[in-house]
Design a protein that fits this description.
alpha/beta, seven-stranded mixed beta sheet, binds pyridoxal-5'-phosphate, four-stranded mixed beta sheet, 459 residues
Length: 459
């Protein structure tokens, strides 16, 4: 019996989008067509992707931060192949697999003091759901607090912690007592905590949607208020963790000592879905509180050999290649380069970020003609200008970026942590050209707006 994947791909590559329209998500396939992202991808390596025509693209999406090491890192690839070659006894389930123990040990070494117990699952949402269960069982309290704009996943438990109307609409009622508060509003936080029924406050120290960064004293103050009221602090590091912001955890920028940390995305080295929820032994053991409750929380694929091996290899590469230091240095250069553009282009209102998690925010133009174009676009769909910039970067510069969230004029950059000066220069130069072009109402950037407005209207 033979099955050649290469042959199957060659024979059917052209059917990629039709298959999705027929069997998967036609709306998504259509949107990709409208914004010019409907490429036939042939290969990915490092910070780059190639389409079937052999054109090269710089990938600043990184699979939403899955590819912190870049695509196909040779060491991770080798380790993946080794796991398969070794015929490891995977998912025996009624055992305590070595590889999970080794990865747990490595993760604990990288945590703030006292976080020494690990639960492995498969996705970011799994990790956050686990964190909520840890918090509830440890405190015996029902409620959760989360921040405006928060994104912790889209399964029902994690959707209940989502700070955006667009994701929640159509699925309510969600978990009762899971309440949203504004970032930087310590008074409201204190008022809610003083009710004595909040199990945990969950934060992304740097938010994924919009790249919002709290004021300097907010997170430390929030942590100390949580401590005063016996509420746990969960740092959701699924996107900002794993070195992305120049530190292993983004919480380290504020010296936080959260009670629970979640990790996922690039922990699997870009090969295997995996997540980890790390907490204090005492909190962990309240959930698995007796021998007959030793499996009260579990997931079939948790601790699988491929995922654990990918995690071990990824942590090794992060250290060996000093990728956190690199994220810091390259991030600073990129932010400086983009901030210099802000001085020249009034439509850039803010450039913010830490390490290689960067947001670029836009504001309405000064010129009257451009203002009219902006208003028409915003009326059809909020955040449409940012989408136009994303499209221009893709079509004219072969750079993949994304709009930073629903209904915001923000672009988010999540480059692989391996980028160097060459990529930084290419990004800044492409942004410069696109922003200059965006000053011409009949130029290439605004030229796409009619198409988007029409699509938004026909929604
Ligand atoms: C901070 C954060 N938490 C949780 C999640 C959910 O992860 P997943 O999509 O793997 O469920 C995400 C996904 O983007 C995220 O950014």
């Amino acid at each position: 019996m033979t099955l050649s994947l290469a042959q199957l791909i060659e024979e059917r590559q052209e059917e990629q989008y039709p298959l999705h329209r027929q069997y998967i998500n036609p709306s998504l396939a259509r949107v990709q067509g409208i914004i010019g992202f409907d490429k036939l991808w042939a290969r990915g390596e490092g910070a780059y992707l190639w389409d079937v025509e052999g054109e090269q693209y710089l990938d600043l999406l990184s699979g939403y931060s899955v590819y912190n090491l870049g695509r196909g890192h040779p060491l991770v690839k080798e380790v993946m192949q080794e796991v398969i070659t070794l015929d490891r006894p995977n998912l025996v389930k009624m055992d305590c697999p070595l590889m999970a123990g080794l990865l747990a040990e490595e993760l604990v070494k990288r945590m703030p003091p006292g976080l020494d117990a690990v639960f492995f699952a498969n996705s970011g949402a799994d990790a956050v759901d686990t964190a909520v269960k840890f918090a509830r069982s440890a405190t015996k309290r029902p409620r959760m607090l989360f921040l405006d704009h928060a994104f912790h996943g889209l399964m029902l438990g994690t959707l209940s912690l989502n700070g955006g109307r667009q994701f929640r609409d159509g699925f309510e009622p969600l978990m009762p007592g899971f309440d949203r508060i504004a970032m930087n509003d310590l008074d409201t936080l204190e008022r809610e905590l003083s009710r004595g029924d909040v199990a945990a406050l969950i934060v992304e120290p740097i938010q994924g949607k919009g790249v919002y960064i709290p004021e300097d004293d907010y997170l430390p103050e929030a942590q100390s208020l949580c401590r005063q009221h016996d509420t746990l602090l969960i740092a959701d590091e699924v996107q900002a963790g794993m070195g992305r912001t120049g530190r292993f955890l983004s919480s380290e920028h504020w010296g936080l000592e959260p009670d629970i940390v979640t990790l996922s995305k690039s922990l699997g080295g870009g090969y295997v879905p995996v997540s980890a929820t790390i907490t204090r032994r005492a909190i962990h053991d309240k959930m698995f509180s007796s021998l007959d409750r030793c499996q009260v929380h579990s997931t079939t694929f948790g601790q699988n050999e491929l995922a654990m091996a990918a995690g071990l290899a990824t942590l090794h590469v992060l250290d060996e290649e000093r990728l956190m230091e690199r994220a810091s240095t390259m991030g600073e250069k990129l932010i400086q380069g983009l901030a210099a553009l802000q001085e020249r282009h009034g439509m850039i209102s803010d450039v913010r970020g830490k390490g290689l998690m960067i947001g670029i925010e836009f504001q309405p133009p000064q010129s009257l003609t451009l203002k009219a174009a902006w208003s028409a676009a915003e009326k059809a769909q909020k955040g449409l200008f940012a989408q136009l910039v994303v499209m221009a970067l893709m079509s004219d510069h072969r750079i993949l970026t994304q709009v930073g969230g629903p209904e915001v004029n923000i672009i988010k950059l999540l480059p692989p942590l391996i980028i160097g000066d060459e990529e930084v220069e290419a990004i800044v130069s492409a942004f410069g050209v696109v922003m200059a072009e965006a000053t011409k109402v009949r130029g290439r950037v605004w030229g796409q707006s009619r198409k988007l407005i029409k699509a938004a209207m026909s929604r």
